[in-house]
Amino acid sequence: EVQLVESGGGLVQPGGSLRLSCAASGFSVGANYMTWVRQAPGKGLEWVSIIYAGGATYYADSLKGRFTISRDNSNNTLYLQMNSLRGEDTAVYYCARVGTWEYYDMDVWGQGTTVTVSS
Amino acid sequence: EIVLTQSPDFQSVTPKEKVTITCRASQSVHTALHWYQQKADQSPKLLIRHASQSISGVPSRFSGSGSGTDFSLTINNLEAEDAATYYCHQTSSFPLTFGGGTKLEIK
Questions:
Q1: Does the structure show a pLDDT above 90 at A101?
Q2: Helix (H, G, I), strand (E, B), or coil: what is residue B80?
Q3: Residue B59 Cα distances to A48, A111, B56, B70, angstroms
Q4: For B19-34, how does the pLDDT look when each residue is reduced to its tens digit (9 = 90+)?
Q5: Which of A63, A82, A96, B62 is spaced 20 to 30 A from B82 at the CA atom?
Q6: Closest-CA residue in chain A for B97?
Q7: What is the nearest CA distance from B47 to chain A, expressed in angstroms?
Q8: pLDDT at residue A102, rounded to an integer
Q9: Can you tell me the distance from the alpha carbon of B105 to that of B85, in angstroms, rounded to the nearest whole number?
C-alpha cells in the first residue's frame, strides 16, 4: 500500500528548531518528487517546499534560509528541518508525493503532524 | 506569485444538486491547475489533475474544466459525503500556490 506517515511535530518555543519526518511505504522517496505543505489553524493550504528526484530543492520565499528539505533514500524518509521558528509557523504539516512530474499534482498525502510554536 | 481566487467562499446546497466552484488565476497557468477535496480533520485528496483529468477512484460526478486563467470544478448529483472544503492549486510556476478554499455544506 502506498502510504506516507509524518512524525516529529510538537510544541517548540519561538526561535527553536524541529525536524519533521515523513516515512514512505509502497514507493521510493528517492525516485519521486516530494513536497511539504502546511495548514495554519482554520486556514487554507500553503506550499512549503519541494525536492526533485535529482535532488534540486525549492522553497516558499517566506521560508528560505529557515527551512531545509532533505531525504534519506536508505530509510525511504523525507525530512523538513525547521529553524528559527516563529508563531506564524504554527500549522499542520503534510508531506505529499508529486503524482506526475509534468504537472506536479500531489496524489498521495500523509495524515499530517502538528507544530505549535509558542512560549 | 500567482494568486488563485476561488468563488464562492462558502455554499450551502442540497443533495442531488449540481454545484460549480470557480478558480481564477492572476496570470495564465495554462492547464497546470489541480483540485483537492479536504474533509474535516482529514488530509487533502486529489480530485482532478491538469485542469480536467479525472483521477482513478474519484467518483465521476466530479469534473473539471478550464485553461489559462479561468477554471471550474463541477460536482453533479451532490451527495452528503461531498461536504468538504475544495481547493484549487497551480503548479505552473514557483512558488506553488493554492486558492483560499470553498467550503461546501450539504443541507
A1: no
A2: helix
A3: 29, 22, 8, 23
A4: 999 999 999 999 999 9
A5: A96
A6: A47
A7: 9
A8: 86
A9: 9
Chain B residue with the nearest C-alpha to that of A93 = B43
**CB B89, CB B102: distance < 8 Å:** no
Write out pLDDT tens, residues B27-66.
Answer: 999 999 999 999 999 999 999 999 999 999 999 999 999 9
- Backbone dihedral region for residue A61 (phi beyond 0: left; psi -120 to 50: alpha; all else: beta): alpha
With helix as H, strand as E and coil as C, how does A11-75 read?
A: EECCCCCEEEEEEEECCCHHHCCEEEEEECCCCCEEEEEEECCCCCEEECHHHCCCEEEEEECCC
Residue B52 with chain A: CB contacts under 8 Å: none
CA nearest to B43 within chain A: A111
Residue A84: band (very low, low, confident or very high) from pLDDT cuts 50, 70, 90: very high
Q: Which residue has the cell 504537472?
A: A103
Distances in Å between the Cα of A44 and the Cα atoms of A10, B14, B36, B100, B101 are 20, 25, 12, 6, 6
Q: Give chain A positions within 8 Å (CB) of B32.
A: 103-104
Residues, chain B, total?
Answer: 107
Q: pLDDT for A42-54, tens place per residue?
A: 999 999 999 999 9
Beta-carbon separation of B34 and A44 below 8 A = no
